[in-house]
């Protein structure tokens, strides 16, 4: 099972930017489908962005399209989420996760999770 550690969260004003990082263990990182998910208080965990290991195709939730970018550096075993034009509604705990099975964007299909990093966007 892959071990994941997120970093880069914090407090930012609306309109600002943050870059989240997720360091992964495991020699087969390049073959994982990876995703970023978030969970706000009182809400279900939702998919934010997913990157497919074959071909690098990406998925974004409608709410973040054009503002967030997911990327993956296989040489560094690191997943990134660049978040621009942040809004107060982006406030949540952000998690990275790995899926070693078939491609999916559903949180339930991801078997390995990090501990999460808090992102707070003030208005």
Structure description:
There is one protein chain. This protein starts with a strand and ends with a strand. Strand 5 (46-51) and strand 6 form a beta hairpin. The chain has strands spanning 4-7, 10-13, 18-24, 33-39, 46-51, 58-60, 68-73, 78-83, 92-99, 112-113, 117-122. The strands form two sheets. Strands 2, 4, 5, 6, 9, 10 and 11 form a seven-stranded mixed β-sheet that branches. Helix content is 0%, strand content 48%. It is mainly beta and 123 residues long.
Q: Work out the helicity level.
A: under 10%
Count of beta strands: 11
- Tell me, what's the shape? globular
Q: Could you tell me the strand content as a percent range?
A: over 45%
Low-pLDDT runs of 5+ residues are: none
Query: Please, what is the average pLDDT?
Result: 94
Per DSSP, the total helix count is 0
Largest sheet: 7 strands, mixed
- Between the first and last Cα atoms, what is the distance in angstroms? 39 Å
**Radius of gyration, in angstroms, nearest whole number:** 13 Å
Order of helices and strands: EEEEEEEEEEE
- SSE class: mainly beta
Provide a concise account of the structure shown.
The chain is mainly β and 123 residues long.
Highlighted features:
123 residues; mainly beta; seven-stranded mixed β-sheet; four-stranded antiparallel β-sheet; 11 strands
């Amino acid at each position: 099972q892959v071990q994941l550690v997120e970093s880069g969260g914090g407090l930012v004003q609306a309109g600002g930017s943050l870059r989240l990082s997720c360091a992964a263990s495991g020699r087969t990182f390049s073959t994982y489908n990876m995703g970023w998910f978030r969970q706000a208080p009182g809400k279900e965990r939702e998919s934010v962005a997913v990157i497919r290991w074959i071909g690098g195709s990406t998925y974004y939730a409608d709410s973040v399209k054009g503002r967030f970018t997911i990327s993956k550096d296989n040489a560094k075993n690191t997943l990134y989420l660049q978040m621009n034009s942040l809004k107060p509604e982006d406030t949540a705990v952000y998690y990275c996760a790995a899926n070693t099975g078939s491609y999916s964007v559903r949180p339930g299909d991801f078997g390995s999770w990090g501990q999460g990093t808090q992102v707070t966007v003030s208005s």
